[in-house]
Structure formats: structure tokens, C-alpha cells
Amino acid sequence: MHLATITEQSAETPVLVDPDRGVIAFAALGNDVPTELLEAIRAERITELTERAAAAPDSAFRPVDAVQFTAPYRHPRMIWGIGLNYVDHASDLSESVPEEPASFIKLDHTIIGPGDPIPIPVQSQRTTSEAEMGLVIGRHCRNVEPEEALDYVLGVVNVLDQTAEDILQRNPRFLTRSKNFPGFFSFGPRIVPLEEVAAHAGGVPRIQVSTVVNGDQIRSNTVERMRYSPASLISFHSKVMPLQPGDIISPGTPGAIHVSPGDVVECQIPGLGVLRNPVVAG
């Protein structure tokens, strides 16, 4: 099952999504269920809730096209972004791929969900949008080796990571500022098991991630073109600090595209779906 949050009557409701049966709210699974998806992830109750949903009657499910998805959750403890991880994207910026992962932190005020507007900050004349496959940590993770790292992944999710590229290019020490404007981290609509997306692609290295703007500007590449694989990134950062349930690692983009007000930007990942956001003036 997939994990998501929907909006109904101005409230956000955590749900499970069965690709065959539809959407079922946590509230339909009993009186003792978490009221937020992140709460369920932190309590490590996803397996239990999935089992309850599997046993629920078909009448408890709604069609997927009858609900409105939003960001899966709003307040992760940590968002790790990885810069210059795809060789081809590094060449876009006339940069070499660093000898160790180049990571940065984004804060939760940057979070938006599917369909929410990405505002271009007035300080930036060149903002880019970057499609990524986010890794959602499912349990406490500390000092793990790459061989076991993917066992700690709850699922993967579409991400659109925005950068005020002109600010960054003035000085690489401005990375945090260039990445942390409101609306600069969109994710959703669903968190899907990594093995499901990998099976669709024929293996994790063959998962394809695409940045698409207005349906015709496309930057696309596969996970195998990452300098540092998802497993190695989890291992590396777990040796820096503990990773906790709900933390997100956004492992880099195959290519950034300059966006302007009026554009529509998408993150497309076969087997995972599409995340789409309009761009507006800030």
C-alpha cells in the first residue's frame, strides 16, 4: 500500500492507497489510529495499519480520482538535500562532482504539496526547479553500512526541489539561503515502497527521474548516473548523525530547469507517478 494525505473540508487526513481498491482513511481503521501520517511513521505503525486496511471491506475505500492529495506531511525533523550528485547536472553548473556527498539542510517552511504554487522570490531573477526521488526513512538509522541501508527506507516519493540559482552562483556559501525560500520543497502525492518502483523499472539503478516544464522541457536520467547511490547516501549521513523515521533524503537531480511565473513544473518517475506544481510570482 501507498501512504498519502488528502485534503477534505479544509482539513488534512492521512490515508492508505491500494492501487486496486482505492483510498482508505486512517480513521476508518479504528479509534486508536494516528491523526497525522508523520505520527504513524514515527510510531512505526505503518505495517499494522496496512494490515488493517487489507482486511477492511471494499466499501471503506474511495476512488483515487475522488480525493485531493496534498503534501504527505508538513513537519519532518530533517530534510537532507544532496548537491551535484548526478554527473550531468554538475556539468550544467560547470562544477565537478565532489569527492564526498555535498549535502545541505532544508527547513519545513519550504514544504508544499501537489498543486500548490511555487513562488519565485523577489530576490531571484533565475530560479530553477529540480525533480528528485526522495527517500523517506522508516526507522532509527545510525552507523549503517551501504549493504543494509535500503532496509531503513520506508518508501520513495516525488520531489521538486527549487533553487535560487543566481544567488547560489554569487557565492557557494549562499547555498542554504538559495534553497530555503517558502515553496522550495514540494513532495507527494504518495510515498511508495522502493521495491515496487524498482520492480517497475527493472532495478533501483534503472529508475528514471525527469524534470519536466510545460510538458516539453525535459531533463531526464537514471539512478545509475548518480555519483553516490541512495544506499551510500543513507550510510554516509547515518554516520554523521542519527536518521529518524520521517526524515527525507533528496538525493539530487538529473537536471534543473529555469522556471518563471506561469510555468507548470513536474517530477515524473515511472512507477511512482507525477508531482505537478504551478509557478507564480512571489
Structural write-up:
With 282 residues, the protein is α+β, with helices and mostly antiparallel strands. It has two domains: 2-66, no CATH class; 79-281, Fumarylacetoacetase-like, C-terminal domain (Fumarylacetoacetate hydrolase, domain 2), CATH 3.90.850.10. It is globular, with a radius of gyration of 18 Å. The longest helix is centred in the N-terminal third of the chain and has 10 residues, at 46-55. The model has no long low-confidence stretch (mean pLDDT 94). It starts with a strand and ends with a strand. 19% of the residues lie in helices and 33% in strands. Strands 4, 5, 6, 8, 9, 10, 13 and 14 form an eight-stranded mixed beta sheet that branches. It is built from eight helices and 16 strands.
Salient structural properties:
282 residues; alpha+beta; Fumarylacetoacetate hydrolase, domain 2; 2 domains; eight-stranded mixed sheet; five-stranded mixed sheet; 8 helices; 33% strand; globular
